Amino acid sequence: MTATVMAQTGEPVETKKANTDYKPAFAGQTRIGSVKTKTPYTVTVINSELNGPWGIHVLPDGRLLISGKPGNMQIVSTEGKILKTITGFPPVQFASQGGLLDVSIDPDFTKNRMVYWTYAQPNTETGATLAVAKGKLSADETKLEDVKVIYEATPRYKGAGQFGSRIVWDKQGNLFVSVGDRMANDIRVKAQDLNATVGKIIHVTKDGKPVAGNPFIGKGDAKPEIYAYGFRNPDGFAINPVTGDLWESEFGPRGGDELNLIKAGGNYGWPYVTYGIEYSGQKVYDGIQQKEGTVQPVYYWDPVISPGCMMFYTGNIAEWKNNVFIGGLSSQFITRLVLQNNKVVGEERIAADKNERWRCIATGKDGAIYAGTDSGKLYKIAKQ
User: Fold this and answer.
1) Rounded to an integer, what distance in angstroms lies between the CA atom of residue 78 and that of residue 84?
2) DSSP strand pairing (167-169 vs 144-152)
3) How far apart are CA 305 and CA 364, in angstroms?
């Protein structure tokens, strides 16, 4: 259960005109009332020299493991000092939305020192794909050893858009991985194709094999690793630490960014069901927002916030406890969402004066928020 809070204390934070006249499926699905943090806090730059930070994971000792989109990874102190630079990665397709993406560590990291990451895997003949790899962090923390690619999404595509991707762990030590739809019209339709893994959430073991009990095992030609489908570009991914529920945030096209509660076997609609429109202003296919057999988003935004990352807050500001924090790219603020009974009941914008594209976010062991930006900065958001 989440803590009971006073919510909807003000008018919605979004005041701009929506792109469409689409109506929500239920009250509170968009433009909820605003909340305002009462606890004093600071937003401070602690490093300005990161190289394309994309993923951030807190190590058992509190230091920060940060991936860089060009193909780098570093260990950074909570004061912002770069302590180690890690090498040993396979080649990445560093172009447009491709590169070295998310990073995570094995739940048994203190014993096995295994690091996992997602990346755009290049291939000049067949095109790139989203891949998942793992490797053992060396004793001196400067390289990854025994690197293995454990998973490759299908099909490959000659483009550099919308790979996703984030990693989270279930209680049994298996991986959930979000995979983007690869953007272009001729491949995004495969988000609805169960024989392809673009536009999906997959559920695999540490060796990249389908997890027993996955919802599509034994169902025709469906890929057995698929857990849920119908996603556009799912760059936010987190498990609610209180309930254990899996949540995802994703980019819509023009309007229609979503926050979703993920259920096994769920069809989340893209590209045929969306609250967004094409960048051209045209409807996406038939312009359908609700359809039987598809799962509605818990919340959506129009105009977009461009949700680049998300987390559940576990720090030391009591009124933020278990709130959702989503880093915005084009919107250039961090969205705070208050949840009650799996519904959004309050919304706030944080750090909107920094003019940053917020790409990765995590709660540190010291209770502060650490967030990386496309400009190469690492911010610390802490109780004053």
Assistant:
1) 13
2) unpaired
3) 24
The DSSP-derived string for 226-283 is: EEEE--SEEEEEEE-TTT--EEEEEE-SBS-EEEEEE-TT-B--TTTB-S-B-TTS--
Cβ count near 295 (within 10 Å): 17
Q: How far apart are CA 330 and CA 332, in angstroms?
A: 5
| Contact status, residue 194 vs residue 223, Cβ threshold 8 Å | yes
Residue 326, beta-bridge partner list: 310, 335
pTM of the complete model beyond 0.85: yes
> Which pLDDT score, from 0 to 100, does residue 8 have?
53
Fold classified for 10-383 = Neuraminidase (2.120.10)
Mean pLDDT by 10 residues, the chain (384 residues): 50 97 98 98 98 98 98 98 98 96 99 99 95 99 98 96 97 98 97 99 99 98 99 98 98 98 99 98 98 99 98 98 98 98 98 98 98 99 98
**What are the sequence ranges of the domains in the chain?**
10-383
Closest CA to 3 of 243, 239, 319, 345: 319
Handedness of CA 358, 363, 365, 366 (dihedral sign): positive
Secondary structure class of 95 (helix, strand, coil): coil
* Contact between 142 and 77 (Cβ < 8 Å): no
Give the span between the Cα atoms of 244 and 235, in whole angstroms: 19
